[in-house]
Amino acid sequence: NLYAKVEYFDEATEAYQNAIELDEEYGEAYRQLGILQYNQEFYEAAIEPLEKATKLFPDADDLQKKLAKCYKKTGKINEAIAQYKSIIAEQKDNVRAYMNLINAYFTTDQYKKALEMAIKLNEIAPEDHNAKILLANAYNYSKMYSKAAEAAKAALSIDDNLYQPYRILSEINFSLGYERYEKYLELEEKAKDVYGEEADRLVQERDSQKEKANNYLSKADEYLKKAKARTKSSSELRYIKARKATIDQLLKATEKGFF
Prior knowledge:
Helices cover 80% and strands 0% of the residues. The chain is an all-alpha fold. Helix 3 (27-39) packs antiparallel against helix 4 and helix 8 packs antiparallel against helix 9. The radius of gyration is 22 Å and the shape is elongated.
């Protein structure tokens, strides 16, 4: 880890490989080696350690996403999808195969197929919080926000310490808030060109959309803080920092009395 932090990538790679040679089940070494190769965009080299790491850390959805991207970047994603589907055809209750397939569909923007598989996964694993998280993501990507929130909260009912459901709930409220913000801007422009009662009506609707935007964005901010408090993942923390900056800007733009 020290070599990686100071960007001695060759030394870090060798250190992780040596650790694996000493202990082939040393999960953290596979995880760190895979992430190191991934961050350097050595996608082919990252596949093997990430495959091992995802088996040893089944709850680490960030590793699943990285592995799926590696398959995509190396032109192996369709091969991986076919493999997962073949496994499911033979082993209809193989939870891991369903999860891998859903993440592969996410990576290739096949959200309808991802949702279909996520629904099936939750039928065979109704108490699995990872299944609920994947279902929430699938609904969210499909812009079915009420169902996405319901699935995210179902995951939290299983384990309140999970960060992913809070991130999803933040994303849902951000999307709803941004939709209202765009509507507010549209009405702001329209109100400039009309007078009298029509102008009053547009201004009232504009202010309503602005207030709704602020309310949704405030909820997005609250959920994001809860997600941050529950993860140590560097990639997630970078995402949270960037999203937080965007939310702060939009909250300022939609605060009461701001023009």
